[in-house]
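Long-time lurker, finally posting.

We've been working with Efflux RND transporter periplasmic adaptor subunit (Candidatus Proximibacter danicus) and I want a structural starting point before designing mutants. I don't trust myself to interpret raw outputs, so I'm hoping someone here can both generate the structure tokens and explain anything notable. Sequence follows.
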Amino acid sequence: MTLVNVGTQVSGTVKKLHVDFNDVVKAGQILVELDDSILVAAAGQSEANIASATASLDLARANEARIQSLFAQEYVSRQELDQSVQARRSAEAALRLARAQNDRDRANLSYSVIRSPVSGVVVDRQIDVGQTVAASFQTPVLFKIAQDLAQMQIYTSFAEADIGSIRVGQPVRFTVDAFPSRHFKGSVKQLRLNPTTTQNVVTYNVVVEVDNADQRLLPGMTAYVSIAVAERKEVLSVPNAALRFRPPASATDKDSTKEAAKEGEGRAGPPRQPGSGRKRDGSSGVVHVLVDGKLKAVQVGIGITDNRITEITSGELKAGDRLIVGENIANGEPSSGSGPRLRMF
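Top reply, 14 upvotes:
Generated this for you. Predicted structure of Efflux RND transporter periplasmic adaptor subunit:
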């Protein structure tokens, strides 16, 4: 969607509005009329200046002709002849200036009727009848017109660690608050090269194009965007909470914990908070499974993640194992009695 700001090149008072919010307009259609009384007077004055300049030029030409005749008979000097020529040229220049002024005044008069530069839908109106608009160094915005609501764009940003995995044409999925249960689709249109740095975090803007044929999406909606940069099918996976969980010492099988720690020595621990779909191939982590009422630490290899679910590439973990993802808390304190109450997945 291209949003076009419609302004004014002349100052004046709004006399008549022809469109309102959500109106469909065509290119060249009248949007608003300004009071043109001052502009009409200025155009009339410049036309009178043309008539005056024309009369002055006629007089200068006649005077030049007489001086030339007298000069030929040696009744006047060369200086008087030169002065008559200069007067005629000045009159010609004054006429051209008057005509240029008239052209400008007529153009300004035409600008009092403001027309739509494009076809589209009026999404914003910032003036009312009787309001005075002043065109100075910065043109005031009167209307905002969306050219084509059937084709929308999303402006989003991604961290520098993720931008290397994004390519033009990649499919995009997103949701909006207005339709939380509906997943919309789009594709990456542009990766902008100009970075933005905020509190030492570098991000890059990404433009996503979206087909909005049913026009359910509206300008200004907040979109929650996800881009699939890697995909695995039919693989073993665990929730990220299982990789983050660290049980109290009393609840663990110490032998399995030592063994898992030894196997993971010198390798990466639980995954950092990666970007969506960032590859973690070659990293490792520890999950805890419940075996015969006891916790057992299991060393696993980590693949890709979407910040919620992580692929498991190696280790003794099997589908169906009972994973521990957290500890139940009662009134802000761990439960007492027979031991910690664990949440399983």
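Before you design anything, note these points.
Residues 237-344 form one domain.
The radius of gyration is 39 Å.
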